[in-house]
Amino acid sequence: MARKNRRFTTFSLSFLDIMSCGFGAVALIFLIIKHGSDHDVEAENQDLSAEVNLLQEEVQFGREHMVLARNTLDTTSDELAEAQGLARRIMEQIEEVKGNLAEVDSTTDEMDIARLQKKLKKLEQAKKQLEEENKKLGNNVRKFVGDGDRQYLTGLRLGGDRILILLDSSASMLADELIKVIRTRNMSDSVKRNTEKWRRAKQTVNWLVAQFPQDSQYQIYTFNTGFQAAIVGTEDRWLNVDDRDQIDEAMKSLDKVVPQNGTSLERVFHAVNNMSPLPDNIILITDGLPTQGMKAPRGNTVSGKDRRKLFRSAVKVLPKSIPVNVVLAPMEGDPFAASEFWKLAMSSQGSFLAPSKDWP
Questions:
Q1: CA distance 135 to 215
Q2: Dihedral angle at the C-alpha atoms of 199, 202, 208, 212, nearest 10 degrees?
Q3: Which of 58, 131, 245, 262 has the highest Cβ tally under 10 A?
Q4: Which domain holds residue 31?
């Protein structure tokens, strides 16, 4: 029997194999592409998560600070309200005071006004009187406190427009006893400047200057056989008490003075007589009668009688009508000094003081 011819069909086995392989390749490519996409998506998700976390932290930080800001705002609002209330009360008090003043002004009669004016006039007179007394007594241009803050009634006349202090700087100002003077004058200058008697004399000057009226003038001379101003170069002029720096300079200059040589009152009194204008008050700080006049003595010693003659000769040179206030630190072996200086103070209408060793 003859074989039948086989028909050709497009859905043969070979065609199906080819299609299966193609679908498999497509599935494989899809799987590969999907895997890569998941990886990229996962990475993007991680980045976005980090940003979200950061934003959440910023939000949380902002919320916390917002709470703090709200608390601060509440506190400020309370303080503002309190301040406004206080201001309102103050304004009410001001208005109340204004009302009281207006009421007082409206009720005050002419008699009350006259009485107040009379009282004011009395107060002005009392003030003027106190100012005049302050000018007389001085206003303590320098502070000076003695041992134990003691105050002294001296009787010294410290007023005047031009006050002259004469400070004895002879060798006798080193000590109160003659033997101590002889011993000390052979020592160094630093020892001489710091002896007890000389320091007491400088403190006396310091105390006196502290009592001068502020509107007055002054000058300080140190003298032995010669004389010089405390501030060298100012011998021909008066210094102002209200210049405190200049007063401090004068006090520092006294600290450099070394007591030495003899005493010539006549020479320094001649210098006083040549001052222009003349002083109207002299304060003499010394310890005894002079040992020479305008010239040095011939011998090495001067008797008590000769010293009295030298003193009286010097007093004749002194300008008249100028009060001389004497501060005497008595020296051993000079018994006539106190009586002679007392006579000078009384005749010139000055004062005489022989202070204790702890003054001023």
A1: 8
A2: -140
A3: 262
A4: 16-107
Say yes or no: 255 and 187 in one domain.
yes
79-112 pLDDT, tens digit per residue, is 777 777 778 888 887 877 777 666 655 555 667 7
- Whether 186 shows a pLDDT value over 80: the answer reads yes
Distance of alpha carbon 279 from alpha carbon 324, whole angstroms: 10
Rounded to 5 degrees, what are φ and ψ at 7?
-85, 150
pTM for this model (two decimals): 0.60
Q: Packing angle between helix 304-317 and helix 265-273, nearest 10 degrees?
A: 0
Q: CA 317 to CA 271: how far, in whole Å? A: 10
Q: Is residue 72 part of a domain?
A: yes
- The answer to whether the CB of 147 falls within 8 A of the CB of 358 is yes
Tell me the pLDDT tens digit for each residue of 283-314. Answer: 999 998 999 988 887 777 788 888 999 999 99
Tell me whether residue 124 is in a domain: no
Other CB atoms within 10 Å distance of the CB of residue 218: 27
Residues 96 and 158 in one domain: no
Asked whether 224 and 262 are in contact (CB, 8 A), the reply is: yes
As for how many domains the chain has, the answer is 2
Q: In one letter, which amino acid is 187?
A: M
Whether 326 and 342 have beta carbons less than 8 Å apart is answered as: yes
Structure tokens at 275: 């001052």
Report the number of secondary-structure helices (H) and strands (E) in the chain. Answer: 9, 7
Q: Note whether 204 and 255 are same-domain residues.
A: yes
